Amino acid sequence: MNRNNNTASSCSNNDGHSYYKITRTVTNSDGKKQTETVEMVDDDAIKHMQNLRLQHDDKRDENRFGFHSLRNPKSLFRSTKPTADKNATAAAAVQDNTEFAQEALKLHNELRRKHGVEPLKLNNDLSKLAQDWANHLASTRGLVHSKTKYRNTQVGENLYCQSWPLTGKEMTQSWYNECKKYDYHNRQLYQSDTGHFTQVVWKNSQEVGFAQAQGSSMNFAVAMYYPAGNFLGEFDKNVFPPS
């Protein structure tokens, strides 16, 4: 499949979130063209947009995609149906779910150990809930947080997506890399662009579930944590400098 005509758009709305959309036109082996669109709604979606790339090479993503503001944020929510393969559904990715979850759990706990907190335990019920949401993201081609509850409490949640096959290690490392922006001298307040990292190492989180799903053009992953992290006023009690 050959790819061409790629555009990316972004805007901010008065609800405090950022909205992003990427549209790609691809030419199939039979010569037919297909339009693929991914929509994202997330306060740090720009990080995911910059991770997108057309092929797995060394070029910087921001050099490949041209970002420009949208005049009308509502245009992001118009129905954008592909011209082919309308009924595409989530399918298994290259790394099976068991391997994906075990790899993600292993790196999570290695990183948590660096920050002096106890390891997470893999919870099958959380993994099933995460799988439901990953399948939803793959079918809707959007990146939005769920409001999933476990034991009557809303879970913590990290999301990830990219256009090439996912691995548990790559996903976890991407979240953890936000630590470079984290200021340990200012732990009373939430710090933007660090929420994935702080959830990974959050002391009070004890259990986790991982899942992934493949959509027609993007691969999506979800991690759900219990108890949830990232509570205002509790960062100094749950996020510690690495040893």
From TrEMBL:
This is SCP domain-containing protein. It comes from the Eukaryota. Residues 99-233 form the SCP domain. InterPro entries: Allrgn_V5/Tpx1_CS (IPR018244), CAP_dom (IPR014044), CAP_sf (IPR035940), CRISP-related (IPR001283), SCP_GAPR1-like (IPR034113). Pfam families: CAP. SMART domains: SCP. GO terms for cellular component: extracellular region.
